[in-house]
Amino acid sequence: MTTAATDPQPAPPRPEAIRIEGLQKSFGTLNVLKGITLTAREGDVVAVIGGSGSGKSTMLRCINFLETPSSGRITIGGEPVAMRADGSPADRRQIERLRQSLGMVFQQFNLWSHKTILENLIEVPVHVLRVPKAQAVARAERLLARVGLAEKAGTYPAFLSGGQQQRAAIARALCMEPRAMLFDEPTSALDPELVGEVLAVIRDLAAEGRTMILVTHEMKFAREVASHVVYLHNGRVEEEGPPEAVFGAPRSDRLKQFLKSVG
Amino acid sequence: MSALAGAALAASSLDLLQYSPPGWGANLLRGLMNSIIIAFGAFGLGSLIGVAGAFGKLYGGPVTRDLLAIYTTVVRAVPELVLILILYYAVTDSVNRLLIGFGFDRIQISGLAAGIAVLGVVQGAYATEVLRGAILSVPAGQIEAARAMGMPPALLARRITLPLMLSAALPGLANLWLIATKDTALLAVVGFGELTQETRQAAGTTKAYFTFFMAAGALYLVLSIGSGWIFARLERWARRGQRGVRG
Ligand SMILES: Nc1ncnc2c1ncn2[C@@H]1O[C@H](COP(=O)(O)OP(=O)(O)OP(=O)(O)O)[C@@H](O)[C@H]1O
Ligand SMILES: [Mg+2]
User: In this protein, which residues make up the domain named ABC transporter (chain A) (predicted)?
Assistant: First the structure.
């Protein structure tokens, strides 16, 4: 490490956090994902863009097996997910363990309504990960302060604004100390004036080098924070690359059209 | 016997209801206590069956679902009185046949245990449907969030699904509890000394039918008002975190 400054050799590639290979998914006869390959290395911010129904959510949900892939391979932190021939997970315990290392943030926040914000944050750390309660509470309070909700620890989710709920949901995911974060349109359910406060939190996470896959319709934001942009069309990766290339010099007509349509 | 009845007839209603003889108060209260114990046991057993049945109906395999459908359909179709007679005599009979078959002595099944078991099975069928509806009312996203964080299914059911469905389930469960307290009266047909049976005995002996049945009615009413108060508090607790319809 100390020799890095004097060593002219390029740094070795960062380890892979999430790798998807040939991912396919059908709902009945509807073929939604038609073979997606994607890698997120540690520290990568992968923005996934694409039209409605292109399969963005389905792809994200396949990563932690909220949807069962039809075929393909998924590797989390170098550990391949054991799958049966039909794509269903072979080992429930492995899925649970891998899910604990992936912090998922939903469009609809999905905080537990019968628990206070603090209880939402410490629920899984205390009852699943067996973190001592005092330690989990300390961690939760630190995270709530970080997302600007320190004084809302004892409040129930229904009494918070959408933006506050989404910031709490992000803190809840962070409280598990995940290897990577998965965001599915985290600001799409918010009133326009509340979008900024949530994006600020995500920007902050990107800046500290957190690995994340971010499905979003916020093109300006994607261009600003992403290290890599993936454009999905009809269940395929139509185009991908660094944000300057994807947004600045799109090659395919479909992407050009899509970028024009979203302004 | 006739001397006792004559004396009782001469006495005023209040004397008849006194706690110690010649009053029958002790008998009535013992009957009430038995009714409460049976109702409590049956309601508890029914709720356990209901939780298992509801999860089985929603998440079980096809065989589990079919068996549960038969259970809830049959139990809810047949009058409870008939079920009690069938289950009580049939179960007692077959247990004893089995015991004798294996060379043991017959046993007398306790009225209390049989009452709880029989009413519990009846309650379980209704509770299965009440709880199934309540589980369906839980927002799917909140369950999915727990799954996405790697919560194992049993923990998820206990810590997320059950508490979330409770506020929707409590009004239905409160009804079932009241039905349980009153269904204990049906056990009088198998000679169990619950409130109605004790009342009939007291009334029959003293011929003071009006007095005793009014007293029993009042006791059932007190029980129902008391449980109404408890369920209202439970419901308020279960609704914590929800924004009320009224401010
Ligand atoms: N559970 C499901 N059953 C059947 N079809 C589904 C299911 N989930 C998604 N689909 C279909 O799969 C396709 C892709 O859906 P998906 O939600 O992944 O799109 P998306 O890119 O996230 O769109 P949006 O931007 O609107 O969120 C759509 O045609 C959708 O109708
Ligand atoms: Mg989507």
Answer: 18-259
Q: Note the pLDDT tens digit of each residue in A167-222.
A: 999 999 999 999 999 999 999 999 999 999 999 999 999 999 999 999 999 999 99
Atom of ligand 1 nearest to the CA of A56: 21
Which token pair is B24?
């029958």
What beta strand segments (E) does A123-227 contain?
180-184, 211-215
The verdict on residue A214 lying in a domain is: yes
- Cβ separation of B159 and A64 shorter than 8 Å? no
Considering every ligand atom, which ligand is closest to the CA of A258?
1
Given CB atoms, is A58 within the 8 Å cutoff of chain B?
no
> Whole-prediction pTM value?
0.85
Candidate from A29, A31, A32, A108 with most ligand 1 atoms within 8 A of CB, to mutate:
A32
DSSP letters, A93-128, are HHHHHHHHTEEEE-TT----TTS-HHHHHHHHHHHT
Kindly state whether residues A186 and A246 are assigned to the same domain: yes
End-to-end CA distance of chain B: 63
The CATH number for A236's domain is 3.40.50.300
Domain that holds residue A210: 16-101+180-262
Domain assignment present for A5:
no
Question: In angstroms, rounded to a whole number, what is the distance separating the alpha carbons of residues B142 and B150?
Answer: 13
Please indicate, yes or no, if residue A257 is contained in any of the structural domains.
yes
pLDDT in tens, B109-133: 777 787 888 889 999 999 999 999 9
> Which protein residue's CA is at the shortest distance from atom 9 of ligand 1?
A58
